[in-house]
Amino acid sequence: MAAILEASDLIKSYGVTHALAGVTLDVQAGEALAIMGASGSGKSTLLHVLAGILTPDAGQVSLHTQRGTVSVGALNDGARSALRRDAFGFVFQQGLLIPELTAVENAALPLMLKGVARQEAEQRAGQWLASLGLAGLEQRRIGQLSGGQAQRVAVARAQVIEPLVVFADEPTGALDSATSAEVMDALIGSTTGRGRTLVVVTHDESIAARCTRVVRLRDGRIVETRSHVGGMDYIQTPAQGDRR
Amino acid sequence: MTTLTVARLLARPAASGRATLALPIVAFGISTALLLTTLAGAMSFFRWHDGNAFTYQALAIFASALLLVPLASLGGSAARLSARRRDDRLATLRLLGATTGFVGRLTVLESMALAVAGALGGVVLYLALTPLVALIPFRGAPIGAGALLLNPLIVLAVVVGVGLLAGVSAAIGLRGVVVSPLGVRTRQSAPHSHWVRVLVAVAVLAAVVFCVANPSILGGVLTVIIVLAAAFAAANAVLGLVGPFVIRRFAASGLRRATTPQRLIAARSVLESPKAAWRQVSGVSMTTFIAVFAGTALAMIGAVSGERADRDELILLDDVRTGVFITLAISFVMVACSVGVSQASAILDRRDLYVSLDRLGMPVKTMDAARVRAVLSPLRIVTVGSAVTAVIIVLPLAGVALVLAPLSLLTIAASIAGGILVVWLGLLATSPVLRRALSEPIVMME
Description:
Radius of gyration of chain A: 18 Å
Order of helices and strands of chain B: HHHHHEEHHHHHHHHHHHHH
Distance between the termini of chain A: 20 Å
Distance between the termini of chain B: 39 Å
Helix content of chain B: over 70%
CATH class of chain A: Alpha Beta
Order of helices and strands of chain A: EEEHEEHEHHHEHEHEEEE
Shape of chain B: globular
Strand order of the largest sheet of chain B: 1-2
CATH architecture of chain A: 3-Layer(aba) Sandwich
Largest sheet of chain A: 8 strands, mixed
Structural class of chain B: mainly alpha
Structural class of chain A: alpha/beta
CATH topology of chain A: Rossmann fold
Strand content of chain A: 25-35%
Number of strands of chain A: 12
Number of helices of chain B: 18
Strand content of chain B: under 5%
Shape of chain A: globular
Largest interface: A-B, 45 and 31 residues
CATH superfamily of chain A: P-loop containing nucleotide triphosphate hydrolases
Strand order of the largest sheet of chain A: 6-7-8-3-9-10-11-12
Number of domains of chain B: 2
Oligomer: heterodimer
Largest sheet of chain B: 2 strands, antiparallel
Number of helices of chain A: 7
Radius of gyration of chain B: 23 Å
């Protein structure tokens, strides 16, 4: 697999607190990468920097596409916004869908932002909703859906533009375990299941176990990388190097 | 005692807490200052006892009637604002097991405290404005600060009244939280405006037109003036009754035709709460309403001035002109205040959502465009509707010639344009609030 995202020596501070203290990380195309760590370890900050939501104080993030390499940190606000709109999908913990819009309108919104006609956008969004088990619920407002259903609408919204990378920040943090499993099925099936890349921040070991690679952060540094390949776990720590 | 303790805890500023507390206080403060200034101005005319005094007093009652309904509406908006800004935390308390009575007491107490704080600020603002207002000339001389100082008991009554209005409004507004906290938190269904409102509005409007067209059946001159003033206030209130219904109809049509994200979001936002959409633009509805009367009055003054040269009458006509402009100016201030406060509040309420849309890559100008459209679309409907309603009422009183006189039409057009400009400026003024909310995203150290 080739790296689709490369981050090197990322440093990000909030005042005197170092959220990222020199993180270097490659995200491989088609993998599901889990970022884990205790509260305050810097995992959400890392996801935001990788996605171009935040710019690092030092270090850089490169996105490799078929059309060339983009230095994410060097882009201005507008260009990073366009990059997120065109190349990335997002799933947040609370869904953060627009409550006034229906499920299909929420899912169609990223396409409309790219200039796709409303009818076509809603048709494509409807297909995604159906593939995620939400057929028949397209015209419901978000408040009329269960937490799991709303989160699957968020997954559809992330997938509808067919992004290069989907970023998920605690996507099941507000759900019970059974619903979490359903949402993760939908998320993993619709990304790596279709050859796309998923980067997910989570506290949940069971979710991390479903990913192909897990990196653990502590105090803004990667302290462990665990890969799951061919039924075997490979663990790498900065101090010990590779081990099985 | 427990209620007071929890109220004190909730009063501590949270992440967006300062604005949560400040916005309702500012809104109550401006409402109170305008109310006191209007009252002081009107009551200053009652120190005269000569032959012309009654005309001035009647006109003061008339202008006050035109302004009191929208003033009460602005005060009500401030009350709802203070209640709504707290309902999430109150709903959480309810979910944690707080009793209905406890949540009710807390709600009323909090809203009343904010209202009284704002009202006291409003008293200070009223006193600060008095020297300026005192310079306005009536009957050939400035009003004078002394004539504008209200009896302290009246000031106290206004402060208490504002507090009570806030308490009652909070109690009514939060019934939803008490009855069904989950319903409020998840916004399950969009409210619907009933068509019966239109029937009631038509009936009230017909009664108003009847009163205006047949003043002789009402009895003495004073009764006629009071009934007419009440009738105009009622007509203004009718606009509030029917406005949300009409806005909802147009928004539904806009939704079907929406082709861009901003049009889609704007139409859905209006449909989410046509009442809230109405409240944002109701100030311009009132300005338009007043403008039709003002325009006709100015045309009438122009016609009468041309015919007569009596000094007292010319002074009276000049004073009526001054009164018209003051009434319009106060209404513009109310509009600007209402739009600014409600828009800033709306942005803060939806901060998390705006941040998430920014992360999805939605350009800020698209978010702003949706916000502006959600206000300006109803505004267009409201101005036309208000102007038509006012013309229906004025026609039997003044006749077609005066209503359609160039000066009248010019005043109406200028007032409508001014109202729309004020709303647009209010929206522009709150754009930095949105940009600041996006530039300070929720920092997650995780």
